[in-house]
Design a protein that fits this description.
The chain contains 4 helices and 2 strands, in the order H-H-H-H-E-E. The chain is mainly alpha-helical. The protein has one domain: Helicase, Ruva Protein, domain 3 (Orthogonal Bundle), CATH 1.10.8.50.
Length: 160
């Protein structure tokens, strides 16, 4: 649910946002989102999943993006640097088109009840199993009113 102003326009909704699959969704554009956001206590999950900063990026795909980038969802954005932001950006540009090309994620059904073909790595299906990348056990923790899935070995929580 989102708020609307007295004219019916969505409040805090990204407008004129480039398609994630387009060249306009560039690293510079991604960095402009980071620079425009007060990151003081914001986690990677909160940055990616709130305020509709990146329309279409939901909780389940953000776990795959952060797994691919080797960034823990609970890590504060202020503790990350440009190499981390590059990995997150590259993961967004890799995971989104792969999920679309595969007809969705292997944990989600389409309108016909068929699971998608994109192999997911950190979710309810992989909870407690060895991480495909490093062999650590995939974990689930309550966080920000929901849950986060991650591998503590290859996605360490950086605390500042």
């Amino acid at each position: 649910m989102f708020e609307v102003d007295k004219n019916g326009k969505a409040v805090n909704y990204a407008s004129n946002f480039p398609d994630i699959l387009s060249d306009e969704f560039s690293f510079e554009f991604f960095m402009s989102l980071i620079r425009a956001t007060p990151l003081k206590s914001m986690s990677a999950k909160e940055f990616l999943a709130t305020k509709n900063r990146i329309p279409g990026l939901d909780n389940s795909i953000l776990h795959e993006i952060l797994w691919e980038a080797e960034v823990n969802p609970k890590t504060k954005m202020v503790s990350l640097g440009e190499p981390d932001f590059i990995r997150i950006y590259n993961s967004i540009k890799k995971v989104f088109p792969a999920v679309i090309a595969a007809g969705g994620k292997d944990v989600d059904k389409d309108l016909y009840g068929q699971f998608g073909g994109y192999k997911t790595y950190v979710n309810k299906k992989t909870l407690g199993t060895p991480c495909e990348r490093c062999g650590g056990l995939v974990m689930k923790e309550a966080f920000l009113g929901g849950a986060v899935y991650y591998c503590p070995q290859c996605q360490p929580h950086i605390k500042i």
